Amino acid sequence: MSIAVLIPSRDRPDLCERAVHSVMNTSKYAEAMVYVDADQKDRYREVLNSLAALFPTRVHSFIGTRAGPVASANELVKYYGGYNAYGFLSDDAVIATPDWDHWLLEAVSHCPNRIGVISPYHNFGNHVDMPFVSREWISVTGWYACPDVYHYCWPIITGLIGEMTGIIHAPQGRFAIEHDTHEQDKQAQTKDAQPFFEYVSLKLPAVVEKLRTAMYA
Amino acid sequence: MSILVVCPTRDRPEGLMRAYRSMCQTSQTPIMLACIDDDQEELYSGIENQSRLVKAFGRRRTVCETVNRAVDQMPAFETYVMMIDDAEYVAPGWDRWLAQVYRDFPNRIGVVSPAHDGGDFLAYPIASREWIDAVGGFAAYGLHRFTWDTALELLGEATNIRYATRDDMYIRHQLDERVGAVQAFMEDSARFVVWCATERRKTIEKLRKAMHA
User: Which A positions 117-156 lie with beta carbon below 8 A of chain B?
Assistant: First the structure.
């Protein structure tokens, strides 16, 4: 059993390192997939080398074009196929609960046909953020993070889909993520608003139907 | 079941009358409340109150503010339906069908999505008195007309929703967007994101409690 924790990172190699360490220190079955934009590979070289030396089989780095968090996460999923579950960890966050991976894999096994969304507890409210999904969920939707949006709105879409199909909200003591900052990139949020609405109003229902069919097939 | 059809209208008295006539031809009991902006009283002066049409005037507001005000002014109806002045009802007997649907909803709480020719999404919102009391208004989400319908559909999917077939309740749309709507649409989209991330779950909880009270 294995979990891929997707960590796109930019401008923050030290925080990225901290995020990866938190994954390593709190789990046995999770691996960290770090996505670094090609124009920052020199900036991240030392950190990535250090992580590779410490965790040769559990940390993987991917250098790619600058494409934004959603596209980066989806690229990582495409490249690192075959994991039982995938989740996102922002590079300014850490996983805080030990053995969360056991809990997550157990939770996924209870989802109908293993199709479901797992929403970690986090310190910024009760909205869905940094969700984890099963491989089977991705097979139905075709993506980990909705590709119609750039960044901020994708967890809301996953949350909406989860609430209409199947979602487990993790208790704080079993799977919690602590987020450092809640920076508001107003421009990115505004950029996402219209595609978010268009996706929710026009495309989301069909995705929900596909998932419901697959869950009970 | 008493039904109030709320029809905000501007610049289109002939469209209002077409909507009204279609309502009369396809149903027996609903009353239409035409919400007209004060500055257009003269434009609509040729339309008299009729047996099932009442005109109401007020200062120019957003569509959602207008429908909420209409509900406040006419609180005694069991169900409220929003209509627009460039659409018409097609399927006969939709009021009887709607009454049956609401009888089957737990505590009359649920969303009904009329069939329409615009696509596979909810439009022309409908709400029962019980729904309005549970969430605090007909259009109660801080949203404007562009995204309110979608909010309602999300709430319905999380609680209770019935999609009408063309034979049940079908609305045909005449025209498309007015000039100048793009900016308003973008602003509403931003509000919609915030609503989805913050208020939506609380609203769903309130509705679920009310459904099973």
Answer: 125-127, 152-153, 156
pLDDT in tens, A162-210: 988 999 999 999 999 999 866 666 666 678 888 999 999 889 989 999 9
Query: CA B131 to CA B79: how far, in whole Å?
Result: 9
Tens-digit pLDDT profile for residues A36-67: 999 999 999 999 999 999 999 999 999 999 99
A187 touching B (Cβ < 8 Å): no
**What is the number of other CB atoms lying within 10 angstroms of the CB of residue B183?**
8
Distance from the Cα of residue B192 to its chain's centroid? 18
Contact between A193 and B193 using a beta-carbon 8 Å cutoff: yes
How distant is the Cα of B157 from the closest Cα of chain A, in angstroms?
7
Q: What angle do CA B65, B71, B73 make, to 5 degrees?
A: 100
CA angle A200, A201, A202 (to 5 degrees): 100
Helices (H), chain B: 13-26, 63-73, 94-104, 129-135, 145-158, 181-197, 199-211
CB pairs under 8 A between A and B: 58
Among A197, A204, A211, pick the best mutation site for testing chain B contact (most B Cβ within 10 A).
A197
Token output for B52: 């099932």
Q: Quote the minimal CA–CA distance from B195 to chain A in Å.
A: 10
More confident residue, B131 or B187: B131
Q: What does the pLDDT look like over A123-142, one tens digit per residue?
A: 988 888 999 999 999 999 99
Quote the pLDDT of residue A183: 63
